[in-house]
Amino acid sequence: MTGVFDMGVYAPYVWGSYGIGVLLLAGLAYQSWRRARITAARLAALEAKAPHRRRRRETGDGS
Amino acid sequence: MRSILALLGRDVGLSWAAGGSTRLALAFFALTVTLFPFGVGPGAATLAKVAPGVVWVAALLASMLSLDRMFETDFEDGSLDLLAIGPLPLPLLVLVKTVAHWVSTALPLLVLAPVLAITLQLESTAYPALLASLVIGTPALSFIGAIGAALTTGLRRAGVLLSLIVLPLYVPVLIFATGAVDAARNGFDTAPHLMFLGAVTLVAVVVGCWAAAAALRLHLE
Amino acid sequence: MHKFANPTRFLKLAAAVFPWAAGLTIALFAAGLVMALVFSPDDYQQGSTVRIMYLHVPAAWMALFTYTVLAASGAASLIWKHPLADVAGKAAAPIGAMFTALALVTGMLWGEPMWGTWWVWDARLTSVLVLFFLYLGYMAVWDAIDNRATAGKAAAILAVVGFINVPIIKFSVDWWNTLHQPASVFRMDGPTIDASMLWPLGLMFGAFNAYFVTVLIWRIRAELQARRVRALEDLLVRQTERESAV
User: Fold this and answer.
1) Is C11 a member of any domain?
2) Whole-structure pTM over 0.80, yes or no?
3) Is the N end or the C end of chain B the one with fewer CB atoms within 10 Å?
4) Alpha helices, DSSP H only, in A1-63?
5) ipTM > 0.85 for the complex
6) C12 occurs within a structural domain
């Protein structure tokens, strides 16, 4: 078993790759999650403001 | 048929007229090529080596320069709406306007390209290949460009977006065209390069007419 | 009213799929990273840099896969006018661009110790670079056009055109590369892959796919909610206008 502490001379390249990978993957995931949260909150606020409008649209959907 | 010729004549005439794009494209082409010796040095061997690429990249940029006006001016003054409800189907309309773009910008470059290639010390054996690659390849530039032009019609800052859309799609044209010229410089057969270049052009004609027509329809609705 | 029913049905399906996708993403990434960094052997030729491949290969694969998703949703948007297709394409594009960027960066980090240079105009690297520009163009079209319906159709056309071009670009770059093959480049697809490397690679593939589904659902949700917010805001404005007029 080689492993985490035994990357040898290539350690900076391997850790650099995984560092950037985690940064990119986590960054995009966080940004996407946040946007979904923000838009959900805004939608909820708007629907609370105009509840009768929303109900009318929903009955329209069913027909 | 008469309406096709009339449209072609009108578009080419407008480009050649004062303020049209033909002269601008020619001047741009010559200037861009002229810049390269200053950049890479005046050594004959270096220049001859980069000559096919330089001429082609300059031609590609010069052809792109006038793309944003391909549909834009007709869109602004409303004549595009008239043309769209006219007798010509939209893909055919795109075909005619793209041919007009080619005649008014790429065709003049064909005359200038050998002269510029001389200043770049291109070997005389490579001239047939250079001209052949330009004749076969530049239509692809116009047709791929038509897609970008149609997509960006009526947008603010259309020029930058247009180049971002169009330039990556130009890569195969550039590769096969300069491949042919390089092959000729080194005494190899140019036919396979030119045949692939022709195939790319054919695909560009078909896809370009369809996609540009679909894009124009969006903006005309 | 299928225009409204469709996103609703999708959101229901997404809500069912989402916990699984998110759970799998975490589990597979955890297992994959441990396998890739701890329990897999060094390559006899590449040393520990072979571990970069467990990130690089799935990223490059997902970059292509996501572009296929873009083109498919573009085609669905143009042919069937499916209302969700535009949203799916818009949501997928940044994920694909991120995968492409990751593939490029890890490729460079692998190339420096192995090829002795950060960048080689190698056929694969070059095609992926062009793919990255295609993603940028697609996203730029969405940004440039204000009307969402028009933007969606325009982006769909570009995605389909780009998809037709991807094999042509790949072929041309391969062709070009054989003309200009630099002597220093050795082929990376030489020896067969050892079983000890298949495990981390497979796990990371799974993790990337689960990640894609998870983030895609988040982004589609956000986009659908943003659209409803805009529609409701318009409605409210019109309502207050009408009331003030009376």
Assistant:
1) no
2) yes
3) N
4) 11-49, 51-62
5) yes
6) no
